[in-house]
Design brief:
heterodimer, A: mainly alpha, about 70% helix, B: about 250 residues, mainly alpha
Chain lengths: ~110, ~250
């Protein structure tokens, strides 16, 4: 009848939960990450992905430089300019892939 | 060139031929298109037939359908956040289209449409355009602040913007090449070791142990191919989700 049984219920739920986790019946709570572990555990996949990121940024930069050169008729200049930029973008991609995320750090701190 | 002289023609399997007789030839309906249709029909069939019993305790097919649905749903919500539910249909479609495309390729006489860069590039361009449109709709002109990383000194901003734009555009290439290269490499390996079996087997008694070894390798490769097929479909879907997350939240 009365609605203030909610507190009791809550405490029961909590006690049940703690009892379950004490007995190992519940799986440990999964941390909600930004990025599920795409990189996975296999190092070959990581290596391939890093290589691909480097090369793809480079290819895009060369394509842009070459296209602009064709457009403006300034043949080598813009390609030459864009090649180091492409390399930098590739390294930046890899950095973004590998950079430690602050959320991940707190997660590993907890576990 | 090598096919006539008894060499290994590893790339012949990727050649396109038209199907459905003269009608197919006139509209260029290739086996690649046929496999895409099959993949689409299989996806619909899995959902439709699988969910028909609507049983409380699901059977095998219903369990498969439900698990596929839940996997993609949790992928969307975990990666993108609560807004991810909006993008569930597109991610689901992409995931199952690629998954069935990859898996169909493992069967003999079937064709892997994801082993053509044209197909994967079209898919990744579609994702890229979708992500950009979503970002523009969510944030308007504010979207362009995505290209200016925070905490960069003013002098470096023009350089950083260029690098960021290149890095943003490189997603198209990395997304498409990853799927294409994985699928093509696997099928080339299968073909090469398959040719080894025939060529070494033709040598007579000396060749039999080596041919048997190649057969063993091919058996393992088929299993590996199944793993890669599922993994690459998953990776493509997850990366789509991550890009959508970036588009919805910016940074």
């Amino acid at each position: 009848m009365t609605k203030d049984t909610g507190g009791e219920k809550h405490s029961f739920e909590e006690r049940l939960k703690s009892a379950r986790s004490r007995q190992g019946m519940d799986p440990p709570p999964k941390a909600k990450g930004q990025e599920p572990d795409v990189l996975g555990s296999n190092p070959l996949g990581v290596g391939l992905r890093v290589g691909l990121e480097l090369v793809s940024a480079f290819l895009v930069a060369v394509a842009i430089g070459y296209g602009l050169d064709k457009l403006f008729g300034t043949m080598p200049i813009l390609t030459v300019l864009f090649i180091p930029l492409g390399g930098a973008a590739g390294v930046f991609n890899v950095y973004r892939l590998m950079a430690p995320k602050p959320k991940d750090e707190s997660r590993t701190g907890d576990v | 060139m090598a096919s006539g002289s008894g060499g290994i023609d590893a790339l012949g399997q990727f050649a396109l031929t038209t199907h459905l007789g003269p009608i197919g030839a006139s509209v260029n309906f290739t086996q690649s298109n046929l496999m895409m249709l099959v993949a689409a029909v299989l996806t619909v069939a899995l959902m439709w037939i699988g969910m028909r019993p609507r049983a409380m305790v699901p059977g095998r097919l219903q369990a498969a359908a439900e698990m596929g649905y839940e996997t993609v749903m949790s992928m969307c919500v975990d990666t993108i956040g609560n807004e991810g539910k909006k993008f569930f249909p597109i991610v689901f479609t992409l995931f199952f289209f690629i998954l069935f495309g990859n898996l169909l390729g493992v069967f003999p006489y079937f064709f892997t449409f994801t082993s053509h860069i044209a197909v994967t590039m079209a898919l990744s361009l579609f994702v890229f355009i979708l992500v950009t449109v979503v970002a523009l709709r969510e944030h308007g002109m504010h979207f362009f602040s995505y290209f200016v990383p925070p905490g960069v000194p003013g002098l470096l901003i023009p350089l950083m913007v260029l690098i960021e734009v290149i890095s943003y555009l490189s997603r198209i290439i990395s997304l498409s090449v990853r799927l294409f290269a994985n699928m093509m490499a696997g099928h080339v390996m299968l073909k090469v070791f398959g040719s080894f079996i025939v060529m070494l087997g033709g040598l007579g008694v000396i060749g039999y142990p080596a041919a048997g070894l190649s057969l063993a390798v091919n058996t393992m490769l088929i299993g590996f191919e199944l793993l890669v097929a599922c993994l690459q479909a998953y990776v493509f879907a997850v990366l789509t989700c991550i890009y959508l997350h970036d588009a919805v939240h910016l940074h």
